[in-house]
Amino acid sequence: MAARRRANGNTESVDNYLKAILYLGGPEERRVTIKALAGRLSVAPASVTNMLQKLAVSAEPLVEYERHRGVRLSTAGRRRALEVLRHHRLIETFLYEVLDYPIDEVHEEAERLEHFISERFEERIAAKLGHPRTDPHGHSIPTMEGEMPEEEGLD
Fold this sequence. Notes:
The chain is built from 6 helices and 2 strands.
């Protein structure tokens, strides 16, 4: 099955790589190893290396990749990762609070939807929910400006 592209040109796969690097790098934005990223995404290390090389040389590089030193997000990559994470956590909150989804079902549903909502839809969800600061799991929701509050959780 071909990867679905978003309006910004990123695929779900790219978004998932960026989220995984954000998670594994933590608030300190540490470099992430190929092995750790391969484990998080359940893909072969060679596939991770290929993807990172592509992301590092794109028109607007999304990662800073150095062979044998790992990877970290570029400014553009961090911005996109936080945007997808914001979408995910707002969707989880909407599903839980408005649509009465059970807490154990919101994550998987949000995983499917996070890549495809527009900024307008994101704004409307946030407004409907009263601009929540945390999702149903207690994790911080990145701000519209792409900042992560201090007391973050990245799952």
